[in-house]
Here is the input.
Amino acid sequence: MGKILVTGVAGFIGSHLAERLLGEGASVVGVDCFTDYYPRALKEANLACLLGRDGFTLVEHDLATAPLEPILEDVTAICHLAAQAGVRASWGESFAIYLDCNVRSTQRLLEAAKSCSLTRFVYASSSSVYGETDDLPMRELGRACPVSPYGVTKLAAEHLAVLYHRNYGVPTVSLRYFTVYGPRQRPDMAFNRFIHAALEGRPIEIYGDGEQTRDFTFIEDIVDGTARALHDGPPGEVFNLGGGSRVTLNEAISVIERSLGVTIERRHLETARGDVSDTMADNGKARELLGFAPRVPLDEGIARECEWIRSLGA
Ligand code: NAD
Ligand code: UGA
Here is the structure.
């Protein structure tokens, strides 16, 4: 399977993806600079299943500044997941970090990739590129008009991927992930916060009335779609990867309550700037060209995230 570079390997999705690729027999060079968006200790825990495994190498490098040619030596494919990933924190002075981690790092990696002979360069894009729309489900050819600075940087990097494909033949495939959840989910994300609060008997904070909807996607399904794009994705293309579990946040909270057997006290705050009202993926293109079919329903996925969070307490 060759040698695959996974950027953002210490993160939620990157660590799961690297595990899957090693299991398929690939060797993996994982890059991460342990940004302080959330604690390093959590990222080291994500890496625990990878360190010491045959075929895995960790390189601690900042993609925005480090020389990239040495880490690309003998690499046959790239999965570029490194980013500053929070939607609501991307306003104000923090935007400089989003520019460095999401735009500048991607442009530098694409530039370095020009002189490698890669089979694929898979870029982790986001449903946040769509912004606010009544035209659901979201289709790849629909309007992309982000409503958060984060979404602007993810769309900019997606455009860069297409440009480097057209101009230099870099075999880029962009994947628009829809709200991913499951074990190792980032600590700023809704389910992680809600499950921790529920287990500790604290109230949760809901931005707005909780009637916003998300097409929640379980981590194993995202990893499967990403692996499929890495093997067979048509270069130059963009794909939605959604879980097919679109529910309101209020409904998802009820699923958490049933899974834990508790009642969660809810506090409502203002709607957060940059949040979209609804997401829903049209997976038709990914189904047809990648054979993508999400398998894990929301109740099962939430139960598995609850189990993981419980195991941390133990
Ligand atoms: P994460 O924060 O857990 O992982 C990202 C990792 O990238 C972190 O470990 C961070 O230290 C690393 N990183 C950031 N900037 C870097 C740089 N300049 N150099 C080296 N490493 C750097 O986030 P995640 O939730 O696993 O998201 C992974 C990717 O998927 C991101 O590109 C994100 O935008 C995208 N995405 C995530 C979701 C989701 O629901 N989690 C949905 C859509 C898209
Ligand atoms: C998620 C990821 O965090 C982004 O990295 C990714 O790009 C995006 O999905 C995507 O699909 O592209 P988000 O949908 O905001 O972003 O995911 P959550 O943090 O799980 O939030 C889901 C909903 O819960 C949002 O409406 C949010 O406002 C709300 N929320 C979150 C709360 O009400 N309270 C909280 O404490 C946290």
In short: The first strand starts at residue 3 and ends at 7. The longest helix spans residues 149-168.
